[in-house]
Design brief:
The chain is α/β, with parallel strands linked by helices and about 400 residues long. It has a single domain, classed as TIM Barrel. About 45% of the residues lie in helices and about 15% in strands. The protein has 16 helices and eleven strands. Strands 7-6-5-4-3-2-1-8-9-10-11 form an eleven-stranded mixed beta sheet. The longest helix has 27 residues, at about 25-50. The protein is globular. The chain starts with a helix and ends in a 6-residue tail after the last helix.
Length: about 400
């Protein structure tokens, strides 16, 4: 009973933090563009599913492969020629998404703030809400002032533990640089979050009271946890979690959701505690910097591109056997991540579909070299959400999107 009372008090504290630590403009934009319109996007998605139509309510747009960092375990090829998505193709994505009642987009890279057209995207689409996954090192005073004026952007800063653990993966003094940018976001009352990849090295630290309290004190309203996947040219498998650690991650998520006034997000489990893959149920796909329509960010393979069918993206998604057959491929095997569980079978499926490798490396070879391991799909060890607030978000508001 005491835990339940404290959990509800923390939800009230979270609401108070949102009202007092975030500007009125940012709150209104987030509530309308992400909250209300996000709910409508899910309703439209459900209606399309009933008719057998495919168009995702959320699209990840990879603006560029350029980046100022060289993080361990990154799947983005940053050497050689820079690749950036044409601004016209970004406009095509946003235009067709609006037609399908979707107004939320996640922008990533590389480092998305190194893409020259990013400010044009924000300014030309005041009716859309953008989440930008960034390393946090581009938050100059001018950039932060512009974000504050716009109000339709929520930065999601990638930080993987305190300085020692974070900089071991991301580079020397990256933590301190990101914290300087976060201080500017907090000063201007911008709604932002922290993206933390859970590894075998930082597992205990990133769920600690000290870690969560630190970012609460710095103004973060949400933290998004990811489980490390060994992909890319240098996969660093020593960062991977064991089966026991994945089960412990699930337990930790439920624990910290009750303890802290910050929204705790995961992308792995439904309200019932069952694993799921967003791409396998048509909720979201990834567009690479060469305009390739891909399953998810770590899988740089595609059959279709944005300008196929004369730029009719709705038609391209609906006629994509690659994306539709991937759903069947996953459902026949697991509810979790096939990259972790069946990388060799996944490579065969992708190649048999005639998908092109857009990594500029040999991503087929990399995928086949992954040692199969456990993902979030843990039959018999499912742990349902045990707090009404997160049950509501997962089961009703976002149809198990874990948002």
């Amino acid at each position: 009973m005491l835990s339940f009372i404290n959990a509800n008090i923390n939800i009230l504290k979270l609401g108070w933090r949102a009202l007092t630590e975030v500007s009125l403009k940012s709150n209104i934009k987030a509530a309308w563009l992400y909250g209300v319109k996000g709910g409508l996007a899910i309703r439209a998605h459900r209606a399309r599913q009933k008719k057998g139509e495919l168009y995702p309510p959320f699209i990840y747009i990879d603006l560029t492969n350029t980046c100022n960092l060289r993080c361990k375990g990154c799947w983005v090829e940053k050497e050689g020629e820079a690749r950036t998505i044409p601004i016209e193709d970004v406009k095509t994505i946003i235009e067709h998404s609006k037609k399908n009642k979707s107004y939320f987009h996640t922008l990533l890279g590389g480092e998305p703030f190194m893409y020259r057209g990013i400010w044009e995207i924000f300014k030309d689409n005041p009716d859309c809400y953008f989440q930008v996954i960034t390393n946090g090192m581009m938050f100059t005073p001018d950039n932060v002032n512009t974000l504050a004026k716009l109000g339709n952007v929520t930065p999601l800063i990638s930080i993987d533990g305190f300085a020692e653990n974070n900089d071991d993966r991301r580079g020397k003094e990256v933590f301190d640089s990101a914290m300087a940018g976060i201080a500017r976001l907090q000063e201007k009352k911008i709604l932002f979050g922290i993206a933390t990849t859970i590894t075998a090295n930082n597992f205990e630290e990133v769920f600690s009271d000290a870690y969560l309290n630190h970012f609460i004190s710095k103004g973060a309203l949400y933290i998004w946890y990811y489980v490390y996947r060994p992909v890319g040219n240098e996969p660093n498998p020593h960062f991977c979690l064991s089966k026991e650690q994945i089960v412990e991650v699930r337990k930790k998520l439920l624990e910290v959701r009750r303890k802290f006034p910050i929204l705790i997000i995961d992308s792995y489990w439904t309200a019932e505690g069952e694993a799921f893959c967003p791409a396998a149920i048509g909720l979201g796909y990834h567009v690479g910097p060469e305009s390739s329509i891909e399953i998810c960010p770590p899988l740089s393979f595609a059959v279709e591109k944005i300008n196929d069918n004369s730029g009719n993206l709705t038609k391209t998604f609906n006629e994509s056997h690659f994306l539709k057959d991937f759903q069947t491929f996953v459902k026949d095997r697991t509810k979790g991540c096939v990259i972790l569980e069946e990388p060799q079978a996944l490579a065969d499926f992708i190649q048999n579909k005639g998908a092109k490798d857009f990594s500029t490396r040999d991503a087929y070879k990399e995928l086949r070299s992954i040692t199969p391991r456990h993902s979030q799909h843990l039959p018999g060890s499912e742990i349902p959400e045990d707090f009404w607030f997160y049950k509501l978000l997962k089961k009703q508001a976002y149809m198990s999107m874990d948002a």
